[in-house]
Amino acid sequence: MDRLKTMVAATAISVCISAGAEFADWPLDAETIPVPSAWVDYFGTHYTTEPGPWRTVRGYGGPHSKLPPVAERGKQRQVRIGPFAGELVKLSLSDFRNWKHGDAVGLDKLIPKLTQQDAAAVYVAEAGGKIGSRDERNETQWSQDTIYWLMRDVYGKFPGAAQHLFFQWGNEINGKMIGVSSDEWKKYAARIKAGESRWKFTCLPEHGEAYAENYFAPALEAVERASHELFNRPDRIPRMTGSFANIYNERFRQWMYGILDHKLDGRHASSFKGDPVWKHVDIITIHYPFAGGDRGGVGIIQEIWDRYGKTGKVKGLWITEEHGNSGKGPTTVVDRGLHFLKWAADNQLDATQTRLCWWGAGNRKPGGTANEAVNTLGSFLGDAPLRLAEQNVDQAKGYLVLADDEKGMPKKIMVAVVPDKKKPAGIGDLKIPLPVNAGESWSARAVQYSVSQKPEDTLPAIKAGADGLTITLNRAVSEPLVLMLERK
């Protein structure tokens, strides 16, 4: 058995690929490395409350879950005095819900459902203006006292919620001028209304300071106070940044670094005076690192992780939106999903440290919805322990993912071929030199994804022999192909 495990650990793929009219050997012989968490733990989606092949849902219960204006809050709310400004806080957990749907339920019902499903929810906690302001931008009237009592209720009434519930302090903050004063915002709002893009005014240094001082710091001071009173430590309640949009853009990243490294002056959070923002962050959240179009996303997230994760400044880096409106459906999920998983494995980051949530996955594309690949890959690999190898061969990327049984032997195998867009791969026999027992039976399913056509599902021939598994494909591959093998 030890010898078999050694063979499995060094599993390689040998693929025949055409060179003109000839077939040549294409060895994908990189050694597999362990993946710290299961597939379903790394990947998430948006808005649903139904279980699926994911463990994270951003906006669990609906995209507009939030606190309403005070006048609209539930009649069963408690009234309590806040510890910061002595505000009378009228609040119940049923108030935090999707207010655009009259039959939507609140956190009082959603948190038990989350724990039952062993799922995690990320909620955007956002108001346009300053924390505690009473202008038209702070529509939910967020204040330190309100945040404090919301945290006390969520994590005090549900002590296990720290593993299941995360509040993200703003969505795509570089495009919204969060924390900017009402008068300052009106200057830009008039120009945006006249037709100018809001992104033209994004990432200004003064807006980064406004977010850090006027929004994030007072919010997190309230979070940490509730955490300390409940758990005797300030970081037991998860501390997330707002999400930073289009992080593939170098200028946007530099703006994010300016916020994270900004030393707070304590104007609205006196206990944070002199601290850099990152000192009060557990998880940095970003959007679209892979959207640059040049497969440079791994270098971008590595740059961020090296700066804040490897140095011990933060605990995690989550991608809370990927795919988006510009995504191409299943081909995007295969390419970016495996790109991300390999990065997590290379850095040995588990799913508490890094995750990726697909957004726009239900949008109809010529090649199908992204959800088709999300469901296929996630359902196949599930929560099994994984090992992964990647190798560049002839300008194509090949991935081998092994899902092991309780004895550490492959029960399922996924092979994904992501060719260069300009050079298709002609694959004949794909050979996987696994230790195969005599009489062992395997099934094979191939799914050819495309940007322009619906997925093509085939059942290629598979043969188990003394030298491993041989799958006959005999096809030219110009877009991502996924092969799923399972021991019967």
Your description of this structure?
The protein has 10 helices and 24 strands. It has 2 domains: 2-35 and 388-487, Immunoglobulin-like, CATH 2.60.40; 39-383, TIM Barrel (Alpha-Beta Barrel), CATH 3.20.20. The chain has 488 residues and is α/β, with parallel strands linked by helices. It has helices at residues 2-9, 39-42, 107-117, 144-157, 182-193, 205-231, 250-261, 297-309, 330-346, 370-381; strands at residues 13-19, 22-28, 33-35, 43-46, 56-58, 65-66, 78-81, 88-91, 97-98, 120-124, 165-168, 240-244, 283-287, 316-323, 356-359, 386-393, 396-404, 410-419, 425-432, 442-448, 456-458, 461-465, 468-477, 481-487. The chain starts with a helix and ends with a strand. The strands form 5 sheets. An 8-stranded parallel sheet has the order 11-10-5-4-15-14-13-12. The protein has a 7-stranded antiparallel sheet with strand order 3-16-17-18-24-20-21, with helices on one face. The longest helix has 27 residues, at 205-231.
